[in-house]
Amino acid sequence: MRKRTRRFWAFGLAALAVLAFLFVPTGQYVEVPGSAESLKPYVNVQGIKDQEAGSYMLTTVGIIGPATPAVLVWSKFQPYSEILSKTELMGADSSAEYELLQRYDIQSAANNAIQAAFKQAKRKVVVNHLGIYVMSLLKDSPFRNQLKLGDTITALDGKHYQTAADYVAAIKKRKVGAKLTLTYLRDGRSHQATAKLMQLPNTKQAGIGITLTEHTTVSSTPKVTIDAGAIGGPSAGLMFALETYTLITHQKLRQGQNVAGTGTIEADGTVGQIGGIDKKVVIANKEGAKVFFAPDQPATKAILKADPTYQNNYAVAKKAAKAIGSHMVVVPVKHLQDAVDYLTSRD
After folding, report:
1. CA distances (Å), 345 to each of 6, 94, 339, in order?
2. pLDDT tens for each residue of 29-42
3. Residue 235 designated active-site
């Protein structure tokens, strides 16, 4: 009877261990190649349809997690997969905050892309600066118990500014410990919060202790709307801009091919670094892209001092394409102009 009982418990414990291995999440995540998707459904220009063969493609990384032990073991045998801690993936944000920031990032990328495309085409675009999004708050921010992620700051002591840089500059002129009243929008309603300015970490400057981004709306003729659905983050900016530019200038730049790429975009057309570019190269190649645009920001002493592990996106993309035997042309871009020049100069 005792032997039978011991066997029962041994079997039960083994079964629980298997179930935990298969189904119990850990605190880690796995980053893998995601998707390469045509921008035709996402970028809409009033009165103009993208009828050219081929497509511009945004590229994504896939995030699996919180991953189970089984997924973590599986990932060890997958090329171009990477295990990340929650902090490495999300910083100090909660999962809900991280998802919210991803949505704000892609909205900002879309607005910047429209501005960059119209400027590249030498066409008029009107930008309405609503204020600055609260993207995150330092744990010792004096406004931490008053502001929330997603709030839009619209004025400092009653004065509205036209850019995020103007807001930052206005705060820097004040002294640590000085009182500041912020006007902000939450769920469409205006509120105010007052606190004393903090000394920003590793500086002698006054600040409010938030990470911010522009909250703008853009008006243009023709009207452009960009909606990427559940996709988040800033890295589709360059490809949004290329699709918009091509449509408003009525050009056929793809030569019937799939053209993929990645990179953040500023309103002036500057292209910035992103994460996971090797995985994006893999998925773009799999989905038949012939060209891949990669941000090209070589390492400087200042960059390496701030991040000793920094690697230029273009260099990593070239290496990944070679490793998988891809025939894609990997093109370095620092500005939207570089991508347009490449496409217009092809034979």
Report:
1. 76, 46, 10
2. 999 999 999 999 99
3. yes
Instruction: Say which of 81, 141, 220, 235 is annotated catalytic.
Output: 235
The first and second tokens of residue 23, run together, are: 């189904």
Distance of CA 293 to the CA centre of its chain: 16
Beta-ladder partners of 143: none
d(CA 85, CA 104): 23
Listed in sequence order, the DSSP H helices in the chain are 2-23, 69-75, 86-90, 95-120, 164-172, 237-248, 277-286, 301-306, 313-323, 336-345
What is the band of 1 on the pLDDT scale with cuts at 50, 70, 90?
A: very low
**Buried/exposed code over 263-292 (b: 16+ C-beta within 10 A; e: otherwise):** bbbbbebbbbbbebbbbbbbbbbebebbbb
Among 75, 280, 290, 326, which one carries the catalytic annotation?
A: 280
Amino acid type, 39: L
Q: Is 280 a catalytic residue?
A: yes
Q: Could you give the 3-state DSSP secondary structure of residue 159?
A: strand
pTM of this structure? 0.86
pLDDT band at 180 (very low <50, low <70, confident <90, very high): very high
224 three-state secondary structure: strand
> Which residues share a beta bridge with 152?
133, 185
The pLDDT tens digits for 217-266 are: 999 999 999 998 889 889 999 999 999 999 999 999 999 999 999 999 99
